[in-house]
Amino acid sequence: MDLFHQPGINLLPRDGIVNYYGCVLDRCDAWDYFEALMVTVPWRHDELVMFGKPVVTSRKVAWFGDSDFSYTYSGRTKKALPWTRELSALKRLVEERTGATFNSCLLNLYQNGGEGMGWHSDDEKDLVLDACIASMSLGAERRFDFRHKETKETVSILLEHGSLLAMKGETQRYWQHRLPPAKKIAEARINLTFRARVI
Ligand SMILES: O=C(O)CCC(=O)C(=O)O
Ligand SMILES: [Fe+2]
C-alpha cells in the first residue's frame, strides 16, 4: 500500500497539515464530471492586478457559493453562482471524506500544461482562519508544490484524475503552494477548491 495515499498521513513536515486522499471517484465518474463541468460552468479568464498592472490570466475560473456571496478583489466585485447539480454532488462527497463543511468553491480550468498558478497562500481575510480547504482534481495529472515561507523546504505531490487533497490547520500561514507549468502536457485539468468563507 502506498503510504502517500493514506489520508491519515500528513505530507508536511511541520506547521500545517496536508492530507492526500488519492482518487475518490472512479475513473468513469471522474470523466463524466470533467465533461459536465466543461460545458455547464461559465468559464471566464480571471482579471487581477500584479505589480500595479491589470493582468488577464490564461487559466479560466468560476466561483460558486451557498448564497449570492460577492467579493471584491483587484477593484472588481464578483458574485458567486448557485451550486449546480454536479457541484452539489461533489461538495457532498468532499464533505463526507474530509469531515469539513464548505460554503463556496473556486473552480480553475487549465487548458493545457502551459497554464499554471504561481506561489501563493489561500489566506484571504474573507476565508475562515485555518479552516480546511479541499482541492479536487479532474483531467490531466499535474504536479503540485508546497514551499515553507521561512525554511524554504518543498514538498511535491502528483494530483491524479479524480483525486482529493485537503489543506488544514496552519498550512496557509506557513506554506505557499503552486501548480507549476508542465509544457509537455497537452490535456486540460479542472481543479475545484472548496472553501469556508466568513458569512
Ligand atoms: O489548481 C490547483 O490545484 C490549485 C489551485 C489553487 O491553489 C487555488 O485556487 O487557490
Ligand atoms: Fe491556492
Description:
Keywords: Dioxygenase, DNA damage, DNA repair, Iron, Magnesium, Metal-binding, Oxidoreductase. This protein is α+β, with helices and mostly antiparallel strands. The protein starts with 16 loop residues before the first strand and ends with a strand. It is 16% helix and 43% strand. The strands form 3 sheets. Strands 1, 2, 3, 6, 7, 9, 12 and 14 form an 8-stranded mixed beta sheet that branches. The protein has a 4-stranded antiparallel beta sheet with strand order 8-13-10-11. Strands 4-5 form a two-stranded antiparallel ribbon. Strand 10 (142-148) and strand 11 (154-159) form a beta hairpin. The model has no long low-confidence stretch (mean pLDDT 93). The structure holds 2-oxoglutaric acid (AKG) and fe (ii) ion. The site of 2-oxoglutaric acid has 10 residues, from strand 7, strand 13 and strand 14.
